[in-house]
Amino acid sequence: MEFIRQLVEISPNPIYVRDELGKFVLMNDAYAQLHQQSASYILNKGFLDSDYSYESDLEIIKSNNQVTIEDLFEQENGQQIWFNTTKKPFTSPDGARFLLSTSNDITTFKKSILEKQEANQIKLQFVNNLKEEFKADINTIVGLTRLLKKGFISVEQEDYLRLIQSIADNLLDAPDHVLEFTKLQTGDIVFKATTFDIASILHYSTSALVTKTEDHKIEVQIGELPNQLPLVQGDPYRLNQIFTNLISYSVKHASKGQISVGARIQAKLVKIVNVEFSVRVNNWNSNSDKLESIFASSTKPDGNEHFTFDNLDVRLKICKKIVELQGGKMWLKTISNQEKEFSFIIPFPIKEEKNESGKPEIPENSDELKGLHILLAEDNPANQLLVISQLKYWEAQVEVAQDGVEACEKARAKPYDLILMDIDMPHMNGIEATATIRKESNPNQNTPIIAFTANASKIDVNRYKESGFSDYLFKPYPEANLYLTVARNVITQGEENLVKGSAESNLLSSTIHNQEPPTITPLESALEPITLEPALYDFSGLGNLAEDANFVRKMQQLFIDLVPSQLEKLSFSISQEDWSTVAHIAHSLKSTYGNIGIKGAAQAATKMEEICNKRNNFSDLDNLLKIVNSTTDKVIAVFQEQLHSTINS
């Protein structure tokens, strides 16, 4: 025992032992000197006059758990000393409880980390300040360009203005990409953990870029996806960012042609699924040397990577880094001189589909919408019920405006965190209402406004931007798309939660990095085609609400109450050749049918709206009306039977 005491006393590392009452029973000079006193003085007294660790030490003895912490001592001369301290409770042979504390000086190591963090913070602040300095000037260029495009200009002048606007948009994006890449390199970035549907993100990413790709005469399509893609936990925002960057990069380097987006299950364990994604371009027209060099180099943060300020290159590096930080791998496959394919694998934890309570489940770590005050401008009662119910499950507060006029009135009266604005409304449409809100002085002049549109194929993004919309969402939509669109327009980076990888995920990550890129199966031949009888309706698109029996009954009853009268008005308007009214009713029905997966009727309503807007092929309306009426009768019969059974039970 005396030998152990001597070892403690001569150790250069601060060491002490205290009993379960907090009294010091053993201490060396290295610890006492930190408090500018001698060990014998403190031991005779039993306590320190100022002992910040007294309460915590007693808690550790009580819990009987070892802890390791970082301690900072600031001496009278201002010198700071950092220690890595381990505190271990133990019991003596006579049953008495004690705590042993040992510390190692890590000051040099800690200072180097803090200096590096400070340097990184200065770098990030510099880039952010640079962005803000010329953001206003570039926005002025963009605004003037849009004004000029509204005037009488030739086709050639319009092309010049489009080029100027494209360059300005690219310059505006560049600082964000540099800032993002810098954060990725320094590790100053976090990933969210939320449950999402992979297919929904693919559809969202491709549809959001439809205008950009159409301007370059490029078609973007999604290949046939596996039927059994599970719900996964991960960061849907980052997955969307990867696809947006890859598609945008491909558009810049392709001439006309086609871009195919796909996903397949590469490997699956009990709780983890490796999903392989691909973006294939079939008409590549740029030199591939630089592209291949990006994928040949490592993006690990060793500080030695050569960094260039090519905005397109930075986009690719961001994608590669995001994949690698999630334990995945990304590579380039050259199929021919004109055909390239970007592929990457990300391991995702599988979401266990259990709901023992029978109530809808709010995704874990998904409280970004909690407490938000949202204004919904929507005239369709079915859409109102759906959106309000979904937002309330995420604990957001919702107010409803029935048309654009009421939306403007409410926007003048009080501030909202976000506004969801339907485009096709009576009295004043969503575009006019949004332009009014942006133009007038009111509490919501700078509030994010999301466009609700059912015209996914012909969305005019530039027109929406000019009107003041912050973002847009297609109807009908998967639940994840509503959450994704609202969240990304209101959350701040400080609210993001770090995703902690499991041991199983790390194991799979190691497997991914040690294997060669797998052989890519062409998207069109990945699965054998299967012919299935289409379902009469499908509530799965409602997400969590599909599990809520009360909500489903409300949707069924609302469908029974509203749709027959709408069809009567539709039939009458066709007989009166009132094509504007026909288009408006068909547009509303399209959303109603689409929300609950009545695909045949939704497609027929969509076609009716197109016919009336284009003012041609009116002879097809009668047949389309028969399809809508027949399908509706079948759905109502099923709904009435289900509601009747529920009442009897």
UniProtKB/TrEMBL annotation:
Membrane-topology annotation of the record: Multi-pass membrane protein
Species annotation: Adhaeribacter radiodurans
Residue ranges constituting the HPt domain according to the UniProt record: 548-642
Subcellular location: Cell inner membrane
Database matches in SMART domains: HisKA (SM00388), REC (SM00448)
UniProt GO MF annotations: histidine phosphotransfer kinase activity; phosphorelay sensor kinase activity
Catalytic activity: ATP + protein L-histidine = ADP + protein N-phospho-L-histidine
Protein name: histidine kinase
Organismal lineage: Bacteria, Pseudomonadati, Bacteroidota, Cytophagia, Cytophagales
Modification Phosphohistidine, positions: H587
Coiled-coil portions: none
Catalytic activity, EC: 2.7.13.3
Residues with PTM 4-aspartylphosphate: D422
InterPro entries for this protein: CheY-like_superfamily (IPR011006), HATPase_C_sf (IPR036890), HATPase_dom (IPR003594), His_kinase_dom (IPR005467), HisK_dim/P_dom (IPR003661), HisK_dim/P_sf (IPR036097), HPT_dom_sf (IPR036641), PAS (IPR000014)
Pfam families: HATPase_c (PF02518), Hpt (PF01627), PAS (PF00989), Response_reg (PF00072)
UniProt GO cellular component terms: plasma membrane
GO biological process: regulation of DNA-templated transcription
Residue ranges of every copy of the Histidine kinase domain listed in the record: 129-352
Predominant place of localization: membrane
